[in-house]
């Protein structure tokens, strides 16, 4: 399984690595469980046409406000949106996983929800900040379930 992600503060990168490590351990105990390949997208990335299905992991960085009637403008993660738009890469995306800080109420995971709405793929799961071990297990199971459909 492939995961494309963008990480600003390192939280998403750290979570993606945890889920890849978890997948490797699951695969070693049972080869039916798929491993994960990670690909970080950043502003210096060379854009390329994606030819294999993937999942997108995106944190939430928005411009102020409350996420309802203002403060819903994406900042810092636009490169991922541009990558998904490039050569219609979004068509290979099986779904998006969002992260954020629950203290921000309606803004929590809003970027991932906006991606799902714009590109027409499902918002699959969410986790807060760097996630915890139960998030890793839960989200891996959701990825496997979605991938195998």
UniProtKB/TrEMBL annotation:
SUPFAM superfamilies: Flavoproteins (SSF52218). InterPro entries: Flavodoxin/NO_synth, Flavoprotein-like_sf, RNR_NrdI. Residues 1-149 form the Flavodoxin-like domain. GO terms for molecular function: FMN binding; oxidoreductase activity, acting on NAD(P)H. Pfam families: Flavodoxin_NdrI. This is NrdI protein.
């Amino acid at each position: 399984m492939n995961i494309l992600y963008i990480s600003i503060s390192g939280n998403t990168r750290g979570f993606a690595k945890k889920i890849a490590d978890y997948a490797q351990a699951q695969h070693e105990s049972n080869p039916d469980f798929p491993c994960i390949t990670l690909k970080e997208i950043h502003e210096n990335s060379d854009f390329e046409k994606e030819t294999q299905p993937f999942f997108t992991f995106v944190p939430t960085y928005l411009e102020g406000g409350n996420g309802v009637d203002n403060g819903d403008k994406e900042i810092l993660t636009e490169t991922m949106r541009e990558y998904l738009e490039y050569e219609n890469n979004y068509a290979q995306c099986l779904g998006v996983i969002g992260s954020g800080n629950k203290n921000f109420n309606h803004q929590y995971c809003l970027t991932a929800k906006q991606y799902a709405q714009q590109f027409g793929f499902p918002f699959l799961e969410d986790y807060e900040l760097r996630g915890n071990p139960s998030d890793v297990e839960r989200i891996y199971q959701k990825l496997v379930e979605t991938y195998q459909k």
